[in-house]
Amino acid sequence: MPPLNAIAAASHADPYPYYRELLAGPALVFDPDLRLWIASRAAVIEEIMEHPQCVVRPPAEAVPQAIAGSSAGTVFARLVRMNEGAVHACARRVIGQALAALDLAAVAERSAQCARALDAHHGLPDGTALTRWLCDLPTYVVAGLLGFGDAELPQVALLVADFVRCLSPLSTAQQLASASTAAHTLMELMQASTPGTLADDVRRRAAQAGWEDSDAIIANLVGLMAQTHEATAGLIGNCVVTLLRQPGLLARLRADPQLVGAFVHEVARYDPSVQNTRRFVTHPISVAGMALQPGDTVLLLLAAAGRDASANPQAEVFLLERPERQLSGFGHGRHACPGQDLALAIATSAIEHLLDLQLDPALLGWTYAPSANARLPQFFNSPVKERP
Ligand code: HEM
Description:
The structure is a single chain. Strand 8 (364-368) and strand 9 (377-381) form a beta hairpin. It is globular, with a radius of gyration of 21 Å. The chain is an alpha+beta fold. The mean pLDDT is 96. Helix 10 crosses helix 12 (260-270). The chain is built from 14 helices and nine strands. The chain is 50% helix and 10% strand. The protein binds protoporphyrin IX containing FE.
């Protein structure tokens, strides 16, 4: 059965035939039930992401009503991801420069250490343990970069998992309340600054850039863990799904682990963890020949764009050696993900670790976590059939 709509597609077992149909249709289509315009082609999505009148939040609702006035709302309102204009530009420059200055070889080493320690704790490759391992790993790595000590990481990872629920429209009132408590605690924990850490570097660069709002700086440090959490876990999970679906690839990577980096990049194109994002139209504009009005919302199907043959020839084929691969799943333009290289480095280390383990498609199954935009596999042990 195809997905019910473009939002349900994010967590559908195989949304790609549905995306293919959209790619073959008009540049923008209106879904009257969702009350959203849908964009699937790479060039149209890029045009919208570059458009100054297409913004990341509805002007009348800077913070979702459900969390307005709570600690989660306080953090949300200050996130670089959720702002435009001067507030966005300054914070974005500081955060982008600090992330670009990271030593990715050291990140890879730290990720490998965390992968081993979490494996010893969770016990791979049991299905449930695998899900917890890949959810914890990226948050542990980024929390460690920000300055949290090993003993604090389990608590911080739980708090981040609670906090990110405030970013989802599917969360219950109870989850939103826990998200708020978590936001408050994370803001408190993030007050401390250790020299030589990513948090310290962000603060130093903020001072140089004249960014003096310490609450906003702390909110954005918390935001870095939140932005990491599901998106990077989803990338690692979708890599595992690809290896389970194509055991030949697993054998190839085992024979030549140098290919793991290219493999992770191709998964980020072929089956990305962030499937869609939104833009809100502030003034009358024309996009791809269509008139959009203030109040219109456009759903940008990043995952469909990765399969757009005009951006990636032979888009439906999984190619390790793909020349000039275009990744749509990390966004584009002024809000493009500044954590892309970090996320790819963490995921590469994670998959290198898994190469030594028994990943057997007969023993592991998966479903996708309910989500309006993320594709996050949840693994389980398949019942082993009795031998006759
Ligand atoms: C596989 C993992 C990741 C994916 C797929 C991903 C994807 C994205 C996407 C699509 C956006 C843009 C959203 C939009 O324009 O509507 C974004 C923004 C952002 N990401 Fe990532 N991300 C990942 C990991 C990370 C990591 C590890 C960090 C940092 C530690 C990070 C930090 C950010 C920040 C700060 C923004 C907001 C940028 C801005 O608004 O200027 N992300 N990410």
